[in-house]
């Protein structure tokens, strides 16, 4: 995701968040990735797990990237694993949940994984990138090997406007390693989310050629 920072302006080109909470199910629309993250965060914190969400967007070539509408059942979840989470998503929602190595992976749709398997020989983070998850994610998304692979697959990052508060390097706060070697795009994103907590989203829209990588903080409520 290409980020443009505006110190005095809060801009986010991400659509409106809306959740239909009537009945026993909750249907998430448009900015549903934030709604999903807010539902997962309390459980992630209590179980000391993190989440990766992969989704396919069915946008048209002229549409913006958006998280697909999905339905979730109202449920009191006391633990976070694939069996429990699978019960939250009703049958027919095309959602698969996998739980391994303290990372809960949620797949919405049949997500192409080719780009995520791109090998990256070496990735060196600046101090700012090491202490800020969103910047670390961008570093991976715009790695040279990822750019080359994306071009071959006719994909390109979806540009977004956003604002954020940055963390200065200091002792006692989460930070990535100085350098990652012999990784894939996917394992690099795993390293970021394991380091900072929260959820990393990977979305792709084959019809428009866009893909998007977003980090959502574990403290979002």
Report the structural category: alpha/beta
Total number of β-strand segments? Answer: 13
* Radius of gyration based on Cα positions: 17 Å
Tally of separate helices: 6
| Structural shape | globular
Tell me the helix content: 25-40%
Can you write the helix and strand succession as a string? EEEHEEHEEEHHHEEEHEE
Major β-sheet profile: 6 strands, mixed
**Termini separation:** 23 Å
Would you tell me the overall average pLDDT? 80
Amount of beta strand? 25-35%
- In order across it, which strands form the biggest sheet? 6-7-4-12-13-9
Domain tally: 1
Residue stretches low in confidence (pLDDT < 50, at least 5 long) are 2-19
Describe the protein's architecture and organization.
- The protein has one domain.
- A hairpin with a 4-residue loop joins strand 2 and strand 3.
- It has 221 residues and is α/β, with parallel strands linked by helices.
- The chain has six helices and 13 strands.
- Helix 4 packs antiparallel against helix 6.
């Amino acid at each position: 995701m290409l980020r443009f920072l505006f110190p005095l302006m809060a801009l986010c080109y991400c659509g409106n968040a809306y959740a239909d909470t009537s009945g026993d199910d909750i249907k998430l629309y448009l900015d549903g990735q934030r709604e999903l993250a807010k539902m997962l965060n309390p459980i992630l914190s209590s179980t000391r797990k993190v989440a990766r969400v992969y989704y396919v967007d069915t946008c048209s070539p002229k549409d913006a990237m958006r998280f697909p509408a999905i339905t979730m059942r109202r449920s009191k979840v006391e633990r976070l694993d694939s069996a429990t989470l699978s019960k939250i998503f009703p049958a027919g929602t095309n959602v698969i949940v996998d739980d391994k190595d303290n990372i809960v992976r949620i797949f919405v749709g049949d997500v192409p994984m080719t780009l995520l398997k791109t090998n990256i020989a070496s990735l060196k983070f600046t101090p700012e990138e090491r202490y800020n998850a969103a910047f670390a994610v961008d570093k991976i998304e715009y790695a040279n090997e990822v750019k080359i692979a994306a071009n071959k697959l006719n994909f390109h990052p979806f540009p977004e406007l956003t604002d954020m508060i940055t963390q200065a390097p200091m002792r006692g706060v989460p930070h990535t390693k100085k350098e990652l070697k012999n990784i894939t795009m996917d394992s690099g994103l795993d390293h970021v989310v394991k380091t900072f907590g929260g959820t990393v989203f990977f979305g792709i829209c084959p019809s428009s050629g866009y893909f998007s990588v977003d980090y959502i903080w574990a403290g979002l409520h």
